[in-house]
Design a protein that fits this description.
Elements: H1 2-16, H2 20-27, E1 30-43, E2 51-63, E3 77-82, E4 86-95, E5 115-127, E6 130-140, E7 146-159, E8 162-173, H3 175-182, H4 186-192, E9 202-215, E10 220-231, H5 233-236, H6 239-244, E11 248-263
Length: about 260
C-alpha cells in the first residue's frame, strides 16, 4: 500500500516538474471551469432509515468545445485527456465525518473522521446519446480502502435547452471501506447493542438515477434529479443496516451550475 501511494506521489511530482514546452502544449487552447452546488435530501448516512438536507458542491475542469454530458453523480474531476469519445483524468471526493451526532443509530460506534478519496476517472461517449463513466478512488483519513463507481446514462433533448437523462449505477469497495462504514467489532457491539460484523469487500450497492436539466443560458444550467440505491453484499449484510437502518436509499434534489471559459493562448 505504501509503495502504491509513493508511486502516485512520484507521478504527481513528475507532472509538476514537466518541461515548460510540454506544459505550454497541454494547457494551450480553451478550457472551462464549472462551479455550482446542489441542495439534496438523502439518508443521514449510507444505510440509514432517517433523512437529512445538505449541500453538495459541483466542480469540474476540462477543455472547451461542444457541451459534454455530465451527471450529478460525477465527483469533482480534472480532465487530462479529452477527445470526442474519451475523457479521462483525476477525480476526488470529500467525505464528511460520521459519529453519534450524525444519527442516533451510530451511538456506540467508532467515529469516522472527515477525509476524502482521490483517484482517476474515465468517460466513454459510446454514442451521441449514451455515456459510460467509471471512477476508481483511494480513500484517506476516513478509510483506507478502494472504491469504484460505474454508471451508464442515456440522454436526449426533449426541447431546446431541456435534457432528460437516466441510467443504472453500481458501486464496489474493498474491505478497507466496508470495515470503516459497516463493520462492528466486539467493543462497538457491546456499546451499541448491534451484532458483531466483520465485512469483506464486494459490490456495495446498485440502482438507477435520472435527471431533468435546463440550460437557461450557454453558461447557466439547472437541474432536478433523483437516485435510488439498493445496498448489497457487505453493506446490506451489516448489522448496522439490518438492525437500525434500511437497504433502500432514496435521494433527490436540485442543482445549479455556471461555466466559466478560460483561454491560455
Amino acid at each position: 500500500m505504501q509503495k502504491a501511494r509513493f508511486a502516485s506521489l512520484l507521478a504527481a511530482s513528475v507532472a509538476l516538474v514537466a518541461p515548460p514546452a510540454w506544459a505550454d502544449g497541454f494547457f494551450s487552447g480553451n478550457w472551462y471551469v464549472t462551479l455550482g452546488g446542489a441542495g439534496i435530501s438523502a439518508p443521514t448516512f449510507e444505510g440509514s432509515k432517517n433523512r437529512k438536507l445538505f449541500f453538495q458542491p459541483i466542480i469540474s475542469v476540462g477543455r472547451g468545445g461542444a457541451p459534454r454530458f455530465s451527471s450529478r453523480n460525477d465527483n469533482p474531476s480534472f480532465a487530462i485527456y479529452d477527445t470526442d469519445v474519451l475523457r479521462a483524468g483525476v477525480v476526488g471526493k470529500f467525505l464528511p465525518g460520521r459519529d453519534a451526532g450524525t444519527d442516533s443509530a451510530l451511538t456506540g460506534l467508532s467515529e469516522i473522521k472527515w477525509g476524502g478519496e482521490l483517484g482517476g476517472f474515465a468517460d466513454l461517449y459510446v454514442t451521441d446519446y449514451l455515456r459510460a463513466r467509471a471512477e476508481l478512488r483511494q480513500g484517506f483519513r476516513s478509510h483506507d480502502g478502494l472504491v469504484a463507481d460505474v454508471a451508464l446514462d442515456a440522454f436526449t433533448d426533449v426541447a431546446p435547452g431541456l435534457r432528460v437523462s437516466a441510467g443504472p449505477r453500481l458501486s464496489y469497495a474493498t474491505s478497507g471501506y466496508t470495515q470503516a462504514y459497516y463493520g462492528v467489532d466486539a467493543t462497538e457491539s457491546a456499546a451499541s447493542g448491534l451484532s458483531q460484523y466483520n465485512p469483506e469487500g464486494g459490490i456495495t450497492s446498485y440502482g438507477a438515477g435520472g435527471a431533468i436539466t435546463w440550460d437557461a443560458t450557454d453558461k447557466l444550467s439547472m437541474s432536478a434529479f433523483t437516485e435510488y440505491k439498493r445496498l448489497a453484499g457487505p453493506a446490506a449484510d451489516s448489522s448496522l443496516v439490518k438492525e437500525e437502518g434500511s437497504r433502500n436509499q432514496l435521494m433527490f434534489g436540485v442543482s445549479a451550475s455556471y461555466k466559466f471559459g478560460v483561454s491560455f493562448d
